[in-house]
Amino acid sequence: MHTSHLDERQKDVLRSVIQIHITTGEPVGSESLARHLNRSMSSATLRNVMAELEKLGYLDHPHTSAGRRPTDEGYRVFVDSLMSHEPLRRGEAAAIESELRPRDGSPSQVMEQASQLLSRLSHHVGFVLVPDTSRTALRHIDLVKLPHPRILAVVVSRTGLVTHRVIEVQDDLSQEQLQACANYLNANFGGLTLDAIREKLLDLMREEKALYDSLLQKVVSVGSRAFDVTEDGPNVYLGGASNIIDRPEFEDLGRMRALFKTFEEKGRLVRILNACLSDGLRVFIGHEVPDPELQDLSLVTASYAVDGEKGWGLGVLGSTRMEYGRIVSVVDHVARVVAQALQEIHR
């Protein structure tokens, strides 16, 4: 949203009201606003300008207070046009890179640490969304014999994410036969998404050759089960959910219960976060968040492709009066470091 329709005085007042409200959480009156602006405008003038901004929909006026507070639309103007992007503090960028450097080659470790780090740096809820397994590309599969009829399928994605699944097959296959199946799958399906692999296995199943080729029969039988991961879906790491409790705007018990219920319903939370992710960095404020239970909150999200693979992302979920300038910088930098870490694990 552009501010071309606002004059400089209106911009200064809106910016200052939001900065004060972010700090205090209280409606902003003309006296505190005058102090913030070093009394460059009189209290009467400030009241008039705030009234103008209220008519434009950028401030509202709680009935029990003489002050005003920003609306979602006011915050949107602030984020898009008025705020200053705060660079990370000295040494902070290096500390983030050190903390997220993969020590054991585990993408899950990097993602879990990133959610905790985002929470700690923002004082809100940090999250990292793991991509839906069905949309990840295959790097490698291992098949391990267990007591019949079970087989352990270890699927490694191109970005290093590992999925373990125990499947059941009708035939009692030896480890040598399972290795032959894994070799075929790795040689012919490596680099394809799991959705694409399932389609190719269905095509194989329809081919007459598979009726007479013993290896292909086993590949189809084992592969169709190993890559049938539609029920797994994406996962999400959450850090610092308790940070919400410390915010005065969430003292209402009903709102708190609804919020934590959303955190517990992982499938629903994943759908919400997926709807807010795209390439690069985005900010959703209040009613822009696509879920009624979260429309008192703001979301700052970032996602960058790893080896061309999309579907993961991270960010911060918190009060609409979060410190947007700082949190945008933190989320963007952490996302770039995580993407680089996943790239290094893949190599």
Strand order of the largest sheet: 7-3-10-9-8
- Spatial shape: elongated
How much of the sequence is in beta strands?
15-25%
Structural class category? alpha+beta
Q: pLDDT below 50 for ≥5 consecutive residues: which ranges?
A: none
Number of domains: 3
For the record, the CATH architecture of the largest domain stands as: 2-Layer Sandwich
Please tally the β strands and state the result: 10
Alpha-carbon distance between the two ends: 41 Å
**The CATH homology group name of the largest domain:** GAF domain
Give average pLDDT, whole number: 83
**Rg (CA only):** 26 Å
CATH topology of the largest domain: Beta-Lactamase
Describe this structure in words.
The protein is α+β, with helices and mostly antiparallel strands. It folds into three domains: 75 residues, Arc Repressor Mutant, subunit A, CATH 1.10.10.10; 153 residues, GAF domain (Beta-Lactamase); 93 residues, 2-Layer Sandwich (Enolase-like, domain 1). Helices cover 47% and strands 17% of the residues. It has a five-stranded antiparallel beta sheet, with helices on both faces. Strands 4-5-6 form a three-stranded antiparallel beta sheet. Strands 1-2 form a two-stranded antiparallel sheet. A hairpin with an 8-residue loop joins strand 1 and strand 2. Helix 1 packs across helix 3, helix 6 runs antiparallel to helix 13 and helix 7 packs across helix 10. The chain is elongated. The mean pLDDT is 83.
